[in-house]
Amino acid sequence: MKLSILIPTYNQECVSLVQTLLHQLPSDCEIIVADDCSPDKYVLKENRKLSELPQVVYWESDANLGRSRIRNRLRDISKGEYLLFIDSDMQVEREKFIERYLSCMPTKDVICGGYYTDSNLPSPLVSLRWRYEKSCEHKFTAEQRNKRPHQNIATANIMIPRNVAQSHPFDESISRYGYEDTLLGQELESAGIRIRHIDNPLVHLGLEPNEAFLHKTEEAMQTLYDIRNQIGDKSYILEIHHRLENWHIAGLIAYIFRKFKTQITRNLLSVHPSVRLFNFYKLGYLCDLYVQKNKKARISRLSLFNRY
Question: Which portions of the chain are predicted below pLDDT 50?
């Protein structure tokens, strides 16, 4: 089998996505949708209709596996020579989307198609992520992504040769949201595997409400802190934090963040959030994590010393 399209989903109805892909799908390809133990009964009811479609396999996990494990599971049950991972909250707009990937074959490279956000704000309730993604879009054209190919990897729309996916699985040690794609990019770079970015984007529809997106951002910063030694200088925000530490002002940034966190949060949860304040929120949250973790480590060492 030439191509397996692998779609992990959690509380996201994706019947229309699969139907659109089916219209473009050659006969020697398959689509596998894996539900990661979604609690939403309506979503489950709708997605179960996928099992009735030709060339489609629908599978439900009995437990929540997480973003990395569910992708590895999809790889294991697929049959394709090439694996195209697509997030379930994406939309296909190009009539030759699959054909564009097929034209890249045969290849030993990992191919990233990219994604973008619709030009129209769908709702004021999702304004934070929408504004943030629109502000970054100019940095993520295929031309820009190819300047730092291993750091700009995005698993929302990526084709990986089967042998590469088997040799370099998604890191299942990551239990929180975020940065599994960054770790994959770093591992592929270390292995000398090329990542090629092409202009074949999907449209990202799954914009969370502002409060939920802010919570996911905090979770991502916690993940980043946990894997900081693995990523090193492959994360732009870690690079900034290292500079602030070298300048001995990281603690000051953490203090400012804590002092004005309530006011900043109020803006970010509003109808017109500031992207600049959001970027500061991420950096301040990370700086504060370092301060709090270091404080706990000092207290722990002191307690151990006093015990003796």
Answer: 302, 304
